[in-house]
Specification:
This protein is mainly beta and 117 residues long. Helix content is 5%, strand content 50%. It contains one helix and eleven strands. The strands form two sheets. Strands 2, 4, 5, 6, 9, 10 and 11 form a seven-stranded mixed beta sheet that branches. A hairpin with a 5-residue loop joins strand 5 and strand 6.
């Protein structure tokens, strides 16, 4: 499977901001709907945001107005800008690439985001 390269996690105070980055290969990126998922301890992994290669976006209701997904096609990179972070946002965040042609998902290693005072 494809290894996606993530960065940007860390510890931040409530109300603070972080930006996550995820880079994929050109081939996978060009074919993929890119997304971010998160998983808190004891909970199922959930979709946070995703963006198709054509720019269509989906957001979880809890993050609408606070998080923004974007993709730089020249860099084969997807970003998640997270503003006004809350303790409830604490989770491991995973980059995802869904390739419809292959009907398959590819995942990053996960990066910890902790929101605490």
């Amino acid at each position: 499977q494809v290894q996606l390269v993530e960065s940007g996690g860390g510890l931040v105070q409530p109300g603070g901001s972080l930006r996550l980055s995820c880079a994929a290969s050109r081939t996978i990126f060009s074919l993929s709907r890119m997304g971010w998922y998160r998983q808190a301890p004891g909970k199922q992994r959930e979709l946070v945001a995703s963006m198709s290669s054509g720019g269509n976006t989906i957001y979880e209701d809890a993050v609408k107005g606070r998080f923004t997904i974007s993709r730089d096609n020249a860099k084969n990179t997807v970003y998640l800008q997270m503003n006004s972070l809350e303790p409830e946002d604490t989770a491991v965040y995973y980059c995802n690439a869904y390739v419809q042609l292959f009907n398959n998902d590819y995942w990053g290693q996960g990066t910890q985001v902790t929101v605490s005072s």
